[in-house]
UniProtKB/TrEMBL annotation:
It comes from the Eukaryota. It comes from Salix koriyanagi. PANTHER family: DISEASE RESISTANCE PROTEIN RGA3, LEUCINE-RICH REPEAT-CONTAINING PROTEIN 57. InterPro entries: LRR_dom_sf (IPR032675), LRR_R13L1-DRL21 (IPR056789). This is R13L1/DRL21-like LRR repeat region domain-containing protein. Pfam families: LRR_R13L1-DRL21 (PF25019).
């Protein structure tokens, strides 16, 4: 079983998609780590990640300014969409082009970020944190 996971991880890490790719669909991926290839695909308009049952988080996606549609589904172990948090990014720059967000059947989902924005800001009070984008 562990060798299968390693094989999945290596297989997806080897992909070298063209940077002009606009749509990415990952279905049934059995690895535990999502590859960093998303950071090189800044022209993506649609991302669909489904039935990747072992993944606990996916890499940050808010750095893809052209992303219009994000669909995540049937992710049994998904706890956080972005485990790295958003740091000092402004809410207005969070997915500036997003028109459609679909999250289905992610029963272990705890939140968007592993750390809440309130934990990342030292000088904020609770009322400000509540007004910010928190899932």
């Amino acid at each position: 079983m562990d060798s299968d996971i390693d094989l999945y991880d290596k297989m997806l890490q080897c992909l070298q998609p063209n940077s002009s790719v606009q749509e990415l669909r990952v279905e049934g991926y059995g690895g535990m780590r999502f590859p960093s290839l998303l950071s090189n695909l800044s022209n993506l308009v649609r991302i669909n990640v489904v039935s990747c049952r072992r993944l606990e988080h996916i890499p940050p996606l808010d750095g893809i300014p052209s992303l219009e549609e994000l669909s995540i589904g049937h992710m049994d172990n998904l706890e956080y969409i972005d485990s790295e948090g958003v740091g000092g990014k402004e809410v207005s720059k969070f997915f500036p082009s997003l028109k459609k967000l679909e999250i289905q059947y992610c029963r272990r989902l705890k939140g968007w970020w592993k750390k809440s924005r309130g934990e990342m800001k030292d000088d904020s009070d609770e009322s400000t944190v509540e007004e910010e984008l928190i899932m």
